[in-house]
Design goal:
Layout lengths: L8 H7 L7 H18 L4 H4 L2 H14 L4 E4 L4 H6 L16 E4 L9 E4 L2 E4 L2 E6 L2 E2 L2 H4 L10 E2 L1 E12 L2 E13 L6 H6 L15 H15 L8 E3 L6 H7 L2 H9 L4 E4 L7 H5 L3 E6 L5 E6 L26
Parallel strand pairs: 1-2, 1-11
Antiparallel strand pairs: 2-5, 3-4, 5-8, 6-7, 8-9, 10-11, 12-13
Length: about 325
């Protein structure tokens, strides 16, 4: 099984001769140049382009964490998108932030659609526990929230390998967020994912795709501590040994080599029964049953070796694959 491996804005610019030495340095230089250009034309960067600086800083923070990722196996995707989450939104926190979610590249998955005669498929999500600033544009949707306040949210950029108009080298990503306010249901957050005027240009995303992606992000937040569902992705030569022993030293070894990743749902049985039904369920656990967790019913798991070959490749600081 192979998964999409994106290139960050810095990696693309570096291949074109950018002289910055790190994602952080590149982000700082680019954002300063954008702010200067906006000042020259009498506008603010937040008003003209609030998304590119957010992406650059998110990529910089992700690179500094050694590019952690989740490989989302195809058998688990339908179960996550069908699951209704009647949970207070404040429960949703990422296990690692920022985090890259990688979708399968060699096996079809359902997060695909057609636009203007071309098929598009979700390749990756870059997700962050990042607050959003409440502004006047959002006040009519959320009049109970004070203007200028930082509101907790799960923010994510969707990569479908869409070229930037006028610059085929770079890729255009869709930015979305859902609020994770105490007292809000996450279903309310899903129904109020905001749009932006820039979304009218380029590839049009169906609403159900955006909501499915938000649901996947939230369900992953409630699965992170389940060792049957979320399994470290160790070095290729150590996979068999780790499957038999679950030796944490093999995980540390992979991390030391720059491979900081996990496989999600690799041990879920691939069969028509589990494709058509949802084996996932929301359970309340812990003292007083106040902690929500996603669990899969018994009988859903098989040995990974019976399913398919193991994932290959991992991310390095300059995006090379090993």
């Amino acid at each position: 099984m192979n998964f999409f491996i994106p290139r960050t804005t810095f990696q693309i610019a570096k291949s074109d001769g950018a002289d910055a030495k790190s994602h952080r340095e590149f982000a700082s230089v680019m954002i300063a140049a954008m702010e200067a250009a906006c000042d020259h034309y009498g506008g603010s960067l937040r008003e003209i382009d609030p998304f590119t600086p957010t992406l650059l800083m998110m990529e910089a923070e992700w690179a500094e964490l050694r590019m952690p990722y989740y490989n989302l196996w195809p058998s688990i995707i339908p179960a996550l998108t069908k699951l209704r989450l009647d949970v207070d939104a404040s429960h949703f926190k990422l296990p690692v932030s920022p985090l890259l979610i990688r979708f399968p590249s060699t096996v079809p998955h359902p997060l695909r659609w057609s636009c203007d005669g071309q098929e598009w498929v979700v390749q990756t999500l870059l997700v962050d526990d990042q607050p959003v600033r409440m502004c006047e544009k959002l006040r009519h949707r959320h009049p109970d929230l004070p203007n200028g306040s930082d509101v907790p949210a799960l923010s994510f950029f969707v990569d479908i390998d869409e070229p930037v108009e006028g610059n085929e080298m770079f890729r255009q990503k869709l930015y979305k967020h859902c609020l994770t306010l105490p007292g809000w249901s996450i279903e309310r957050s899903f129904s109020e994912i905001p749009g932006h005027s820039s979304a009218d240009s380029g590839v049009q995303y169906p609403d159900h795709i955006v909501q499915d992606l938000a649901r996947i992000v939230c369900t992953l937040c409630l699965m992170a501590d389940d060792p049957q569902l979320v399994v470290p992705d160790v070095l290729s030569k150590d996979k068999q040994k780790f499957a038999e022993s679950r030796d944490s030293r093999l995980v540390a070894k992979a991390h030391n080599r720059g491979k900081v990743g996990w496989n999600v749902g690799a041990d879920i049985e691939v069969s028509p029964h589990y494709r058509n039904a949802s084996p996932a369920a929301l359970y309340w656990t812990g003292q007083g049953r106040k902690v929500p967790r996603i669990r899969f019913r018994k009988g859903c798991f098989v040995h990974r070796q019976r399913m398919s070959s193991v994932p290959t490749g991992y991310l390095l600081p300059q995006g090379e694959k090993r």
